[in-house]
Each structure stands twice: as C-alpha cells, then as structure tokens.
Amino acid sequence: MSDQLDDLERRIDELRAGVRTAMRVRDSATARTLRAELRSAERAWDALVSGEPARPKPEPPRLVTVREQVHQGLRLLGASAQPRLVVAVSDAFFGGTIRSSQLTSLRRDEERSFRSSPFGRPYYLCAALTDRLSPARGLLTLSSWPIERRVVGPLSPRVDFLTCAIAVAEHESDDGRAARLLVRMARNIPGATDATFGPPDPARVIEAARAELAVHAERDTRDRAELAGRAVAQLGDAARLFGAATLSTIKKEKAK
User: Fold this and answer.
1) Higher model confidence: residue 47 or residue 134?
2) Average pLDDT over residues 146-160
3) Which of 18, 105, 188, 198 has an alpha carbon 20 to 30 Å from 180's alpha carbon atom?
C-alpha cells in the first residue's frame, strides 16, 4: 500500500505541475485534460487511504498537442493551407481544440527545432515557398511532402484551395461543422452549388473543383517544377523547409 501511495502522490505532483505550466502558456485544452486526470488520481488516492475497494484505473486520455492537430489537418487537406482552414478542418473532423492564435509562433518553433537537431523529427510544420524562395506568409505545409507541393506559383493558391475543397468533400462526416465548412468552400467554386439554400452535394463539389483544376493544373505544375528546381539548386536543407531569408528579414535580424 505504501508503494502505491508513493506512486500516486508523485503522479499527483507531476499533474499539478503540468496544469500550472499549461495555464502559464495559456494552453487551456491541455490544462483541462490534465485537470481531469488529476481529479482521477486524487480519487484513487482517497480510495486507497480510506480502504475502499479500488476501482479499475481508467486509461488516461492521450494528449494531442497543437502540433499533432495541425499535422492531422494538413494531412487531410493534402495541400498548403492558411491556419484558419487548418483549424476549421481539425475542429470539424478531429474534434480539435486549437485556435488560429496558437499557430502564430509554431513555424518559428519548428525552425528552431530543425536547426538545433536537423531531421530529428519525422516531420516538421513549415512554410510554403514563394517565387523568391522566401517563406509565404500564412501558408503552412509539411516537410514530408515533396518540394513541388511546398512551393507556390501564381496559380498555386487557387489550385491548393480546390485540392483542399475536394479533400473536405471526400472526407465523410456527420458533424455539422464539416457540412458548414463545405458550404463555405463550395461558395467559391463555380458550379459547386445549385439554386437551393441546402447543403451542397459533395459529389457535385468534387466534380466542379476537378473541372476547374483541369484548367489550371498544367501551368501550375510547370511553374512549381521550375520553382522546385531553383530551391533544390540554391537552398540548403533548412531554407528548403522554412524559406530563404529576404533582405527585410536580414535587416530585422541585424537590428536586434
């Protein structure tokens, strides 16, 4: 009994420290999960010291970090996307708890991690690359994608939007949030909706998006291939993932 109490007390201390840390960085989702586990551990401690029959200890829920939730969203979309779309997909399909504001410093954190230990993680959340091979503002990608998918030419934002719309339409869900997301995306695709105000037919959205994609695909593929070739020839490993420093970036760094 003494060993069990010691283990529980250590776990309670760890959980309390974890809650304090999560609250300090304003990660309310993690704090809620840890508080729930803390209450369970405290109940087990009470039962042990009072001599009540021990109840089976529930398996603590696995904490899904902001980073993992963004990874889930991007994998579903299959193309570079703005944070607000990633958040909406995470919310609609994975019960996500992230907010756009939490993604503000995420790419910088990923870059610092890569530079301190290159390729130490299975994947990195990184920036799309512009025609200047600099990081595209507000566009997230995955390092595990080929570089042709991580660069953006003149037509790429539209191509990526259509690709994302197809992915959302293909991913079945009974969640009303998924339906509302599809409605918003379908409004920006000619022919994806009819004259009614009901939810769009996913098959119709897919058909309309693919029809427009066929118009842009050849030119966009050519542009991306050219950009990818330049990136491979001119950039080192870190810059291929996070973009080359621009003149304005260098000036800001020198001013610090």
Assistant:
1) 134
2) 96
3) 105
> Which positions ≥6 away from 127 have C-beta within 8 Å?
107, 135, 136, 139, 140, 141, 241, 242, 243
Compute the C-alpha angle 156/161/163, nearest 5°.
90
Q: What is the rounded CA–CA span in Å between residue 142 and residue 144? A: 5
Q: Does 56 fall in a domain? A: no
The answer on 149 and 110 residing in a single domain is yes
Domain that holds residue 20: 2-50
Could you tell me the end-to-end alpha-carbon distance of the chain, in angstroms, rounded to an integer? 57
pLDDT (0 to 100) of residue 218:
96
Nearest to 70, CA basis, from 28, 17, 127:
127
pLDDT interval class at 25 (50, 70, 90): low
Both tokens of 166, joined, read 């197809």
Question: Does residue 119 form part of some domain?
Answer: yes
